[in-house]
Amino acid sequence: MSLLETFTFLTFWALGCGLSKLEQSRISISSEVKKSADIYCKITSTDFVNDVIHWYRQKPNEALEHLIYVSSIKIRALTHKHGNKKFEARKNSQILTSILTINFIEKEDMAIYYCAGWFFPQKIFGDGTKLVITDRNFGPEFSPKPTIFLPSTAEINHENAGTYICLLENFFPDVIKVHWKEKDSNTILESQQGTTMKTNDTYMKFSWLTLTANSMNKEHKCVVRHENNVNGVDQEILFPSMKREVDGNNPTEKACLKDQSGALQLQLTNTSAYYTYLLLLLKSALYFAIVTFCLFKRTAVCGEGESQ
After folding, report:
1. Are strands 65-70 and 53-58 parallel, antiparallel or unpaired?
2. Residue 180's beta-bridge partner residues?
3. What is the CA radius of gyration of the chain?
4. Please, are residues 165 and 195 in contact by the beta-carbon 8 Å criterion?
5. Which of 20, 129, 214, 247 has the most CB atoms within 10 Å of its CB?
6. Which pLDDT tens digit goes with each residue over 181-208?
7. What number of other Cβ atoms are within 10 A of residue 197's Cβ?
8. Which residues, at least 6 apart from 81, have a Cβ–Cβ distance to it below 8 Å?
């Protein structure tokens, strides 16, 4: 490393000593080609004025790419492409935020964008914001639509445990984050996440939380973060206490729970049937190719025999 590089590194490190946390609350942002998009990074620091904030992006199956950095709260940092201002980075001291602006958006700009800064002895990163390129305008009507499924009384009584299921449907884009908490707690609980699946022009996803006897008397919530949530606020879907459901069960509630379990089973059955159909279709295509090859070969052999 040259003397100049060493000096530059130490300078940037020293200017980042007050930085302790970077937060990118938006997990995705959608934009059309040729438009502009802003990506925000909230900064927790004791020396925001002097912090140096870097911006990176990562395209699918590619390495992290450094785009730009900004150090001043008065002057924007710029990079150009084909004579145009492609990337702009700035710092807003009123809201302690760095903003990356992507101009003249192209399809090749689809990537996850990260802010970063030095916090001794390493560089720390935000969680990332994915830029989604689309030719359609999507609003709150494309936020996740939740359906809740509660454990059956038989499961709770027999297993002394129960599972909440949160089904989210009809959302776009596919970028979504789901986690679980107790109703009055900020602690994120260990849960399971299903694969995000495409259904026509939108997406769906399952998430579930299994509770043991110690937690069955508490209410829980499924927290959903998505770009098109109303006012950008996380959805909080409340699940009632399992113990209360068992203690206060009545025939109407039992029928409801049975209907919900049936709906979930139907959804899973339809998904399984779809993939089974694809597998059978591929097998049929393979058999057809083999039979065609054999017939063609047999015809060729017969033709040679007649000519001899």
Report:
1. antiparallel
2. 189, 222
3. 27
4. no
5. 129
6. 999 999 999 999 999 999 988 999 999 9
7. 13
8. 104
